[in-house]
Amino acid sequence: MPAYKVTVATGDVAEAGTKNFISVTLVGSQGESRRSTASSFFLPGQEKRLSVDCGQDLGPIVLVRLHKWRIFLEDAWFCKDVRVTAPDGSLYRFPCYQWLEGVTTMEVREGSGKKVADDKLQLLREHRRKELAARQEAFRWKTYAEGWPRCLNVGSILELDSNIQFSCVRATNFTGFLILQGASHLLSGFLLRSTSWDSLEEMQTIFSRTKGRDIG
């Protein structure tokens, strides 16, 4: 009986783990596996491995279905990727980098770059059609006021899917970067200088000296 080795990885970001159940279905060009549960507890950055036994050779693995379900409380999960090793040793990678929220199923394509013309299987063409429709629904535009640039047709960013929102983690990192740059310029004397620079060369010379002291 063919056995496929599957590795499910959680992203290494804040609150990426989950206490909900995560199951996997492998979809190949010649069939699909049964739904197999990977775990009911993931920590950020953690990988879980499982073996999926199949009654037949599935052929090249083209899709992975990730199922998130729960018994009690909702707990969102951020999936980094899924890796599948076939019985013949072939390795298939499925990059995800998305949040799964609620009781849901997400289909993830194999990571090799493909053009529309490369989608010979009907299920891949259907997956591409659904993905395009979902993006068109998520990124609807509206005119806020005459003469203004168009904007997303939502009343608040909270209406957006969490994979589209500018996350708290990214916002914190961005703010920290600005604070670090501001402190660096302050210590370098750029922000407290009371007179103008005589020339660009003078500014570059002082900046180079400051950087040299920082390195030393």
Automatic annotation (TrEMBL):
Sequence ranges assigned to domain Lipoxygenase in this UniProt record: 114-216
Pfam family of the protein (one): PLAT
A GO biological-process term: lipid oxidation
InterPro entries recorded: LipOase, LipOase_C, LipOase_C_sf, LipOase_mml, PLAT/LH2_dom, PLAT/LH2_dom_sf, PLAT_LOX_verte
Annotated ranges, domain PLAT: 2-114
GO MF term set: iron ion binding; isomerase activity; oxidoreductase activity, acting on single donors with incorporation of molecular oxygen, incorporation of two atoms of oxygen
Chief place of localization: cytoplasm
CDD domains recorded: PLAT_LOX
Keywords: Calcium, Cytoplasm, Dioxygenase, Isomerase, Lipid metabolism, Metal-binding, Oxidoreductase
Family annotation (SMART domains): LH2 (SM00308)
Compartments (UniProt record): Cytoplasm
Binding site for Ca(2+): G17, D75, A76
Family: Belongs to the lipoxygenase family.
Name of the protein in question: LOXE3 isomerase
Originating organism: Scytalopus superciliaris
